[in-house]
Specification:
Strand order of the largest sheet: 2-1-3-10-4
Catalytic activity: 4 porphobilinogen + H2O = hydroxymethylbilane + 4 NH4(+)
CATH superfamily of the largest domain: Periplasmic binding protein-like II
Shape: globular
Oligomer: single chain
Family: Belongs to the HMBS family.
Helix content: 25-40%
CATH architecture of the largest domain: 3-Layer(aba) Sandwich
Bound molecules: the ligand NCc1[nH]cc(CCC(=O)O)c1CC(=O)O
Distance between the termini: 45 Å
InterPro entries: HemC, Porphobilin_deaminase_cofac_BS, Porphobilin_deaminase_N, Porphobilinogen_deaminase_C, Porphobilinogen_deaminase_C_sf
Subunit structure: Monomer.
Function: Tetrapolymerization of the monopyrrole PBG into the hydroxymethylbilane pre-uroporphyrinogen in several discrete steps.
Number of helices: 11
CATH topology of the largest domain: D-Maltodextrin-Binding Protein, domain 2
């Protein structure tokens, strides 16, 4: 395996979307600053980009990451930047998450027509999302809003807001605030969801910088890591892993680091819902940041005690199931 000399550029594998490229450029800048090395972006196409099918129909986790991981393993690229929420919880053999940089605001947001909030949209209005987690939590609010399954890049989704229904238009969409922040589109937001009403996806707003475990970059990238962000997402992902839920399951989790008398503490809350949002199990826990994985694991175990596994096995009977898979 060749190790690039100090004079060759570090090759950073990225997906082609505007968000992926923006996130990759952010990391590339940080790598340039910390290593003094040149970094070039190499575009890698993933199944998640080329298929128009609903993401929930893929079954396998990580449709966006497989091709990037192949490029890392066969040496086409030296590092890859992923949205952490798109990464399966199972470790990838031969690969290491060398850095998890400081996280953006992890909350979900609404972009609705005419500047409206969810509560202001008339019953029967349509909300576009392909995320069972967002759909279930929206249904649980009981506002009488319809979920319409949509896909596409952030720009495509924004373009559907207020467009005619015949052209795939909807009254509102959900997006991650972090993506809009990175793309400079915070102006489009009409409501920021309070995590009390909508818990974000585990890892939302955080990036993962991945490389081969045996690559010298693993050490060089360590300064890009933010220990508090890493602890928070480790706890959130432990919840997902213990619940044996993938990225298409209606599970939300948010860990926050708070300063306690004996140092930092993690506060974690999580929810699992039936797909129609009719039933849910919600729990919270706190514990030491140094034991993030244990804290997340115990939280998931509390949820299993409350029937989380049985709840996830309940099929959805409401009409919005069809829409989710449309
Ligand atoms: N599922 C696609 C995806 N993966 C990461 C983000 C946003 C950026 C982030 O959460 O870090 C998005 C778009 C969205 O959910 O609005």
């Amino acid at each position: 395996m060749t190790v690039p000399s100090d004079r060759t550029a570090i090759r950073l594998g990225t997906r082609a979307s505007a968000l992926a490229r923006t996130q990759s450029e952010l990391v590339a800048d940080a790598v340039r600053r910390h290593t003094g090395r040149d970094v070039e972006l190499v575009e890698v196409t993933t199944e998640g980009d080329t298929s128009g099918a609903a993401l929930t129909s893929f079954g396998g986790a990580g449709v966006f990451v497989g091709a990037l991981r192949d490029a890392l393993l066969d040496g086409r690229v030296d590092l890859a930047v992923h949205s952490l929420k798109d990464l399966p919880t199972a470790p990838a053999p031969g690969l290491t998450i060398a850095a998890i940089p400081l996280r953006e605001d992890p909350r979900d947001v609404v972009v609705a027509r005419d500047g409206l909030t969810l509560g202001e949209l008339p019953a029967g209005s349509t909300v576009g999302t392909g995320s069972p987690r967002r759909a279930a939590q929206l249904h649980a609010l009981g506002l009488g809003l319809e979920v319409v399954g949509i896909r596409g890049n952030v720009g495509t989704r924004l373009g559907k807001v207020g467009a005619p229904a015949e052209e795939g238009g909807v009254d509102a969409v959900f997006l991650a605030r972090a993506g809009l922040a990175r793309l400079g589109r915070l102006d489009a937001i009409t409501e920021v969801m309070d995590p009390l009403q909508m818990l974000p996806a585990p890892g939302q707003g955080a990036l993962a910088v991945e490389c081969r475990t045996d690559h010298p970059l693993v050490q060089l990238l360590a300064p890009l890591d933010d220990a508090r962000t890493r602890a928070a997402v480790e706890a959130e992902r432990a919840v997902l892993a213990v619940l044996e839920a993938g990225c298409s399951a209606p599970v939300g989790a948010l860990a926050e680091v708070v300063e306690g008398d004996d140092g930092d503490e993690l506060w974690v809350r999580a929810i699992v819902l039936t797909l129609d949002g009719g039933l849910s199990v919600r729990q919270s826990i706190s514990g030491p940041t140094g034991d993030a994985h244990g804290v997340g694991t115990r939280l998931a175990e509390l949820m299993l005690d409350d029937g989380a596994a049985e709840l996830m096995a309940i099929p959805m009977t409401s009409p919005s199931r069809k829409q989710l898979h449309a």
